[in-house]
Design a protein that fits this description.
With about 325 residues, the protein is an alpha+beta fold. The chain has 7 helices and 12 strands. The strands form 2 sheets. It has a 6-stranded antiparallel sheet. It has a 6-stranded antiparallel sheet with strand order 9-8-7-12-11-10. Helix 3 runs parallel beside helix 7. The longest helix is centred in the middle third of the chain and has 46 residues. The N and C termini lie far apart (about 90 Å).
């Protein structure tokens, strides 16, 4: 059957999980174009890095509902096992035959192969047996590759964090500290630092901007000295909760705990996404650091690791800076 040579194969990595470890999306990791053709399947976005959200991809239920079996579908429009939603999705993708090979190890997802043909394909019993055996052969290979890649990424992250740590210790001003924070990030980021203002009862009543920095020419309206009171922006209280956790907000417009006043402020400041970090020492809040993007931003694993490392790197630096400032003020 020569049509089998025109397969369009995608290796897809299970990309994101929700809080209950349910798969949220998959991402294209590699792409094998048809052997006897110079053209890929036109309706399937196969670029490496393409992300398919499970909620928008009905076909995903085929492997998620039966993760330990290989799905062999010879005719996507006439297979009685498929729902109308499955058939419509395959039809939109111009896929008339498909094989889905799930890769798992110890009950954990590694990824999957998605094989697609433009025309229906009939598989022999030997071919079906071969396809069914592939997960056992491929899963340990993919697991080993992912382990090696994970180790390389971890080493790169550690080197980056060590570089930032050294630069932070050498920074002589708040602006120098903020400039260092942005160094590993994209050019469209802006960082600001604020300090808490307390009342006589030790309750935070406002935040005062003490510094900001941008790597680009983008202007940030939260100027040094600006004060934002909890009375006017009650959603600030959310930032003051669970201060041991770095808060990563991919889309501030969809954060349900923000009120209209805070949303209006974020819109005026041009904040679409935000990483919010509390700096503490001996249980006391020293300052808050906010890194923002103008548009919604999906945080990469490297960015998550970097932001989660920042409190330990920054807190002693800011504590020393505040101690020096206090000493200078007492001597004047």
């Amino acid at each position: 059957n020569k049509s089998k040579d025109s397969v369009n194969a995608l290796l897809m990595n299970v990309h994101r999980f929700d809080a209950e470890d349910n798969v949220k999306s998959v991402r294209v990791m590699s792409n094998l174009l048809p052997i006897n053709s110079n053209e890929a399947m036109t309706a399937v976005p196969t670029n490496i890095g393409t992300v398919y959200k499970v909620e928008d991809f009905p076909i995903a239920s085929l492997w998620l509902d039966n993760p330990d079996q290989t799905d062999i579908i010879e005719d996507t429009q006439n297979d009685p096992r498929l729902t109308d939603a499955h058939k419509a999705s395959f039809g939109f993708l111009e896929v008339n035959s498909s094989v889905i090979i799930s890769l798992r190890q110890s009950g954990q997802w590694l990824g999957l192969f998605f094989l697609a043909w433009k025309e229906p394909v009939v598989f022999s019993e030997d071919e079906k047996a071969y396809l069914a055996a592939l997960p056992a052969m491929l899963s340990p290979v993919v697991a080993n590759l992912q382990s090696l890649e994970g180790l390389a990424r971890a080493n790169n992250r550690l080197a980056q964090i060590n570089k930032v740590s050294s630069a932070l210790k050498a920074a002589e001003t708040i602006d120098g500290v903020l400039e260092t924070i942005l160094e590993p990030l994209s050019d469209d980021t802006v960082v600001s630092m604020s300090r808490p203002i307390y009342d006589d009862n030790g309750t935070v009543t406002a935040l005062e901007i003490v510094g900001n920095h941008s790597r680009s020419n983008r202007r940030f309206d939260a100027e040094v000295g600006a004060i934002y009171t909890v009375a006017n922006y009650t959603a600030i209280n959310w930032y003051l909760e669970d201060t041991d956790r770095v808060k990563l907000i991919s889309d501030v417009s969809k954060e349900p705990r923000f009120d209209d006043n805070l949303r209006a402020l974020q819109a005026r400041l041009g904040i679409g996404a935000q990483a919010y970090i509390t700096l503490k020492q001996a249980g006391n809040i020293l300052a808050f650091v906010s890194v923002v993007w103008e548009h919604p931003h999906e945080f990469s694993e490297d960015e998550k690791a970097y932001f989660n490392a920042l409190p330990a790197l920054l807190s002693p630096v800011i504590a020393n800076r505040q101690a020096l400032d206090s000493l200078e003020q007492s001597n004047t």
